[in-house]
């Protein structure tokens, strides 16, 4: 049975990181970077935590707060809340079980001392030169601009898909490693894992611990993956333009470039907590941007539907942002605009790349199955095998991450909303 705090209790906390909030100097960010759990407390709460951790009884700290800060605080309830988030180590000498599993960060040998140079001035200058050289090259050689035809670099559809999947997997690995290295360069732990976003199978890096660093440094973590993608595309184009590596390697590099470009376009889906979503989260300084933005979007949709079809669509009700501050209301509305713009960009990417690739692949596979010989039939089977394996991996990942919700879903009850891991990828 877990210990409960009383007014005579003495509380000890686990090691925690504390800093003044970037959003409000009257608030403090308190958390455990190793498990990715953070909360914000007012100055009185921070003073109470420090006083309690010094060994004072809850009753004595309450009296001290009343005298020094003119604040009446129920610290027993406050401590119970801190127990729930795993901050309390013991009460009256009785150890409190840690609710979080002890997970080691991936690649722990990466530290700020051996990764910081990747984000220094010299590295930034090198990235700028790489991008500038690519832009100049594409003006001179527009035929090197990645196009959907580059995806199909050979005559066998299944083989192309298999090899491109391997190339894309390597690119995704580098993308996520970039997030991990960026987090580690700031002294924050991180872990890479599979996850799902709607119907997409994704690889993500849990970088929740970056809440322990200032906001202006967090952008490094969020944008490092896209910078890596851009470097891969630029590198592939420049090698093909100047190194002339041979026909097969040239086609494979072009295929790599187009697959990475398509993945970069997907980052515009800011309603799926992509890298750019977390950039917006910090730029707009809105803690619950996703859910608030979704509620506002639903309100707008219902309001528009009611105006067009008043007999079919009911009245929209109260604006969910009505009680927000002017800053928060502006942030939510800007996010709604970003969702529309981002979806438009992603849709344009699908029309330019995804749709033609799918149409070409389906037609080619149909021709092969219709009498293309043994090799063509085997190749079509390879295509089915690769796509089937990806779908199985999606289902396994979805089950592992959501199995605690499945019984409630199957039982017909709607699950309570749960928070998402702060990952980027």
From TrEMBL:
TM region positions: 122-139, 151-174, 221-242, 248-266, 334-355, 375-398
The entry's keywords: Membrane, Transmembrane, Transmembrane helix
Protein name, as recorded: PqqD family peptide modification chaperone
Origin species: Micromonospora terminaliae
């Amino acid at each position: 049975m877990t210990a409960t705090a009383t007014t005579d209790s003495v509380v000890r906390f686990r090691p925690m990181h504390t800093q003044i909030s970037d959003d409000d100097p009257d608030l403090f960010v308190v958390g455990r970077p190793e498990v990715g759990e953070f909360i914000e407390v007012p100055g009185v709460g921070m003073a109470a935590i420090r006083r309690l951790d010094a060994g004072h009884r809850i009753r004595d700290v309450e009296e001290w707060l009343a005298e020094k800060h003119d604040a009446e605080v129920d610290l027993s309830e406050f401590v119970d809340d801190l127990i729930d988030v795993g901050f309390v180590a013991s009460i009256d000498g009785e150890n409190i079980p840690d609710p979080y599993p002890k997970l080691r960060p991936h690649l722990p040998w990466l530290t700020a001392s051996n990764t910081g140079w990747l984000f220094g001035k010299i590295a930034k200058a090198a990235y700028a030169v790489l991008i500038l050289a690519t832009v100049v090259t594409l003006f001179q050689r527009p035929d090197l601009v990645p196009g959907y035809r580059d995806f199909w670099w050979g005559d066998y559809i299944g083989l192309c898909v298999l090899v491109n999947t391997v190339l894309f997997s390597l690119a995704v690995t580098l993308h996520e490693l970039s997030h991990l290295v960026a987090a580690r360069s700031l002294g924050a732990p991180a872990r890479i894992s599979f996850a799902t976003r709607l119907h997409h199978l994704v690889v993500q890096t849990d970088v929740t611990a970056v809440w322990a660093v200032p906001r202006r440094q967090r952008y490094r973590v969020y944008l490092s993956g896209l910078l890596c993608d851009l470097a891969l595309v630029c590198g592939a184009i420049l090698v093909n333009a100047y190194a002339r590596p041979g026909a097969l390697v040239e086609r494979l590099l072009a295929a790599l470039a187009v697959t990475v470009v398509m993945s970069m376009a997907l980052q515009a889906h800011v309603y799926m907590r992509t890298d750019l979503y977390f950039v917006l989260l910090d730029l707009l300084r809105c803690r619950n941007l996703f859910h608030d933005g979704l509620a506002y979007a639903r309100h707008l949709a219902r309001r528009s539907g009611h105006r067009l079809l008043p007999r079919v669509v009911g009245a929209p009700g109260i604006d969910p942002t009505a009680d927000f501050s002017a800053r928060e209301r502006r942030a939510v509305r800007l996010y709604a605009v970003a969702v529309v713009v981002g979806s438009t960009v992603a849709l344009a990417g699908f029309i330019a790349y995804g749709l033609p690739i799918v149409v070409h692949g389906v037609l080619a596979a149909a021709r092969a199955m219709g009498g293309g010989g043994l090799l063509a039939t085997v190749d079509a089977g390879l295509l089915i095998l690769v796509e089937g394996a990806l779908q199985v991996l999606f289902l396994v990942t979805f089950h592992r991450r959501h199995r605690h919700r499945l019984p409630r879903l199957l039982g017909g009850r709607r699950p309570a909303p749960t928070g998402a891991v702060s990952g980027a990828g």
